[in-house]
Specification:
With 101 residues, this protein is mainly α. The protein has five helices and no strands.
Length: 101
């Protein structure tokens, strides 16, 4: 019989994790995302590594627009529009965004 201590731990998919996944999906590094959103690079780093857990709503909107992900997914891990969908409970390998022609 498996005890509670032996069960695998499900990772907590934080807003910082979703910011990182969105950034990587868009093919950007932190400096590029900072430049395109006008958010300080160290602020983005703090969001991604969990040092700052409250993300300003305006920053979330800017990150969503620049990276091309659904803002509801970025905020809550769900999507309510018909746009690009990220699973809220699974880890995925993010594809690269197509290069601009």
């Amino acid at each position: 019989m498996t005890t509670h201590a032996e069960l695998p731990t499900v990772p907590v998919l934080t807003v910082g994790w979703r910011i990182r996944m969105a950034r990587e999906f868009a093919g950007l590094d932190q400096a590029e995302l900072a430049e395109r959103t006008q958010i300080a690079r160290n602020t983005i780093s703090n969001y991604e590594n969990g040092a700052t857990t409250h993300v300003k709503p305006l920053y979330l909107r800017q990150i969503a627009l620049v990276t091309g992900v659904d803002e509801a997914w970025l905020v809550h891990g769900i999507t309510v529009t018909g746009g690009f969908r990220f699973p809220a409970t699974t880890l995925v390998t993010m594809p690269r965004a197509p290069a601009a022609a």
